[in-house]
């Protein structure tokens, strides 16, 4: 058996990832992400650009105190400025002063950039590369050379771009990284260029790709197959313009699809989903549900025929077992469901596979979805629907009616008040509450009526509220769908209401949310649902 070839993973989330629109990590975020990447077993973490800003400079001070087990922290910078000695260049000095075990120097490889952007001769650029690499190599144990725009340069002037690589190799580069900086190359172009360079250059090669043609991951894999032994990318593909190669996909594919390559240490791959979500949360960005390997929908099955297949043999509709990357399989319920979706849910809820119940649930789901309901986003309402149809729902309060009034005065903030009448056992409650809008006022009045009967409701609060017009052509008479997301200490759940009246739709979703909480507490379950928009209902058993 041939030994596996190790592919080093180089993460640049904190440097190139920060160049993505809307991404701004604090110093603390950067340190926390560094630790997570170390736990995942990433080989290199490019922490930033020490010359660029005080935060990045402070990072390289602070990261020295971080107990890292595996990862090497890398400082990034460019070759020396034109017409100045490397030892006098502030960028060069800042790079070495970062005190990291490795540094990365980016240099120009494409003659167009040398002449038109830097404004120097081709010879001076070669000297800039040689001097900078030699300066770093005599002071830092590992020097990585990022050949910016390599593939564009190689297409137009292969001799010159190869000369720049030779210059870096001779000056002491430990790695030469071929960069598809503009992200426009095709996998076959990358493969051909890497195989040519591999014949010419003896220094280990790496690949750094951008996603402007949606090919960053494919291009990185093509390079690895032709001899690249380091892949640079970012978690979730964050980065300049359309982003960098998404390391979640690079790692997933290299670990699970290529038996000859080895990335990360054994047992680390299961952390991939957790690290992806951690980076989204830290960057304050929304998850991408359809993201390969780690997205909440990556193993979510909706179509009835798919669920039918997955129930028999999971690999019928799954390219890998979700748990290998720390993700999970989810079965969605909708108008596209067949009996298999419902059967899977009944199993999940610990209910018998009663054929009559199964048909009634499916009919009701299809009826309601036809009216505008969407249960995928509101699994708690689906749980209540099943409970009711299964005759297992204990009514904990009887609603008698509600009233919402909004008083407006031109130029002043409006005032909203809600009144609720309901019954808990023999006790009649009639409560009123003001609020910042109708939902808040209804929530307040419901709490006044119910909290002294059910104190557990105090733990629950609303975290999200979404309204969507269903039949927009009906204008202001259109039906609306309201989805509410609520949480307590251990779960997040979604409920839904549909009506022509936005207050009534909100009311239906709100009441379901209260009912779900009471039903959940009565079951005494504490199982944690994931803190993500993808909601998991709990067992009814
Ligand atoms: C492909 C990449 O992603 S490379 C990394 C890109 N990332 C960033 O640019 C983020 C961090 N950048 C910064 O903080 C700033 O741009 C700095 C500190 C690097 C430079 O700032 P400034 O000195 O104000 O210059 P500015 O950003 O306007 O222009 C870049 C300068 O670097 C020069 N330069 C660009 N690339 C190189 C290089 N590889 N080697 C030497 N000089 C270079 C340019 O010629 C220009 O200098 P000039 O104005 O004398 O011609
Ligand atoms: C180095 C780098 O970030 C690039 O060439 O895209």
From TrEMBL:
> In which pathway is this protein known to take part?
Amino-acid biosynthesis; L-isoleucine biosynthesis; 2-oxobutanoate from pyruvate: step 1/3
UniProt cross-references to SMART domains, sorted A to Z: LeuA_dimer
| Domain of life from the UniProt record | Bacteria
Q: GO molecular function, one example? A: 2-isopropylmalate synthase activity
Which PROSITE patterns is this protein grouped with? AIPM_HOMOCIT_SYNTH_1, PYR_CT
Enumerate the catalysed reactions. Answer: pyruvate + acetyl-CoA + H2O = (3R)-citramalate + CoA + H(+)
Query: Gene3D superfamilies recorded for this chain?
Result: 1.10.238.260, 3.30.160.270, Aldolase class I
Q: Protein name, please? A: Citramalate synthase
Output the GO biological process annotations, alphabetical, semicolon-separated. isoleucine biosynthetic process; L-leucine biosynthetic process
Question: What's this protein's family per the entry?
Answer: Belongs to the alpha-IPM synthase/homocitrate synthase family.
Q: Which UniProt keywords apply?
A: Acyltransferase, Amino-acid biosynthesis, Branched-chain amino acid biosynthesis, Isoleucine biosynthesis, Transferase
InterPro entries under this entry? 2-isopropylmalate_synth_dimer, AIPM/Hcit_synth_CS, Aldolase_TIM, Citramal_synthase, LeuA/HCS_post-cat, LeuA_allosteric_dom_sf, PYR_CT
Q: Where is the Pyruvate carboxyltransferase domain?
A: 7-273
Q: Which CDD domains match?
A: DRE_TIM_LeuA3
Q: What is its EC number?
A: 2.3.3.21
């Amino acid at each position: 058996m041939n030994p596996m070839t190790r592919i080093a993973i180089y993460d640049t989330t904190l440097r190139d990832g920060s160049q993505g629109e809307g991404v701004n990590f604090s110093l603390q975020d950067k340190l926390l992400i560094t630790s997570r990447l170390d736990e995942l077993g990433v080989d290199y973490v490019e922490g930033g650009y020490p010359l660029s800003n005080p935060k990045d400079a402070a990072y390289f001070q602070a990261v020295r105190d971080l107990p890292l087990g595996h990862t090497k922290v890398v400082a990034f910078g460019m070759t020396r400025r034109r017409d100045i000695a490397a030892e006098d260049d502030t960028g060069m000095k800042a790079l070495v002063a970062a005190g990291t075990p490795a540094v990365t120097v980016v240099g120009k490889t494409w003659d167009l950039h040398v002449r038109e952007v830097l404004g120097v001769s081709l010879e001076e650029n070669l000297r800039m590369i040689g001097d900078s690499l030699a300066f770093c190599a005599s002071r830092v144990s590992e020097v990585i050379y990022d050949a910016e725009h390599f593939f564009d340069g190689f297409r137009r002037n292969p001799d010159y771009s190869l000369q720049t690589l030779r210059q870096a190799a001779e000056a002491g580069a430990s790695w030469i990284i071929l960069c598809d900086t503009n992200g426009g190359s095709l996998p076959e172009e990358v493969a051909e260029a890497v195989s040519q360079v591999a014949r010419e250059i003896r220094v280990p090669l790496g690949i750094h790709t951008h996603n402007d043609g949606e090919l960053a991951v494919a291009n990185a894999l093509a390079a690895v197959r032709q001899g690249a032994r380091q892949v640079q990318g970012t978690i979730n593909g964050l980065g300049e313009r359309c982003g960098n190669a998404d390391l979640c996909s690079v790692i997933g594919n290299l670990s699970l699809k290529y038996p000859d390559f080895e990335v990360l240490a054994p047992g680390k791959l299961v952390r991939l989903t957790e690290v992806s979500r951690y980076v989204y949360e830290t960057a304050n960005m929304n998850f991408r549900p359809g993201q390969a390997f780690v997205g909440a929908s990556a193993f979510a099955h909706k179509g009835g025929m798919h669920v039918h297949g997955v129930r028999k043999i999971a690999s019928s509709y799954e390219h890998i077992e979700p748990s290998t990357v720390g993700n999970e399989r989810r079965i969605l319920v909708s108008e596209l469901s067949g009996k298999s979706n419902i059967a899977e849910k009944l199993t999940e809820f610990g209910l018998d596979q009663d054929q009559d119940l199964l048909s009634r649930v499916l009919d009701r789901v299809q009826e309601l979805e036809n009216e505008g309901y969407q249960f995928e986003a509101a699994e708690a309402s689906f749980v209540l629907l099943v409970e009711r149809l299964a005759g297992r729902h204990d009514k904990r309060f009887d609603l008698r009616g509600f009233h919402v009034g909004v008083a407006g005065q031109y130029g002043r903030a409006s005032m909203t008040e809600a009144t609720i009448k309901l019954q808990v056992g023999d006790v009649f409650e009639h409560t009123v509450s003001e609020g910042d809008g109708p939902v808040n006022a209804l929530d307040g009045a419901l709490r006044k009526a119910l909290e002294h009967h059910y104190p557990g409701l105090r733990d629950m609060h609303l975290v999200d509220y979404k309204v969507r017009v269903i039949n927009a052509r009906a204008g202001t008479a259109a039906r609306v769908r309201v989805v509410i997301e609520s949480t307590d200490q251990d779960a997040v759940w979604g409920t839904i209401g549909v009506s022509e009246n936005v207050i009534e739709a909100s009311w239906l979703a709100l009441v379901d949310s209260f009912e779900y909480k009471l039903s959940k507490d009565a079951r005494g379950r504490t199982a944690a649902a994931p803190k993500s928009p993808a909601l998991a209902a709990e067992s009814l058993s």
